[in-house]
Specification:
alpha/beta
Amino acid sequence: AATTEKEITDSGITAVVEKELRIEKGVFPDLIDVATSEGIVTLSGSADNLLAKERAVKIAESIRGVRGVIDQISVTPVSRPDEDIRKDILTALRQDPATESYQVAVLVQNLVATLTGSVGSQGEKQLAARIAKGVKGLKDLRNEVTINYLAKRTDAEIAADVKARLQWDIWINGDLINAA
């Protein structure tokens, strides 16, 4: 029996990426142009925050047939005072149940935020950055948060944390991965 598998074309990839961008909340597809050549997707245009830019790239990377993504999206944030951005990042970190206890300081200069302080894991460092990137008005982020590995954890605790994070990651089927 012959299979009728569709050939993946550049125009097909472009259409799927554009469709997925329209579905994703927080990404404004009218501001992002998509072009595909030999499976390489080029994203250009603008986003109003860093998180929207990252989401657009992740979406393109997840599409079947995409061999690579060239990110030419510029971040053109709304004009806001640095101090307002700093306060909003601190508020966002305090309001998120996962980051409310983090000891993170924020400095904003010329729409670029620098996070400093100390957290207990790489995942916590990445989460603090992700929350900060969602604040309007931010053009770039430097994550200089350090990881304090002094807290002793058992192998079983670490494995349980890895398994739990895999279960909640939409890009991974955590049931197929065993953590040890």
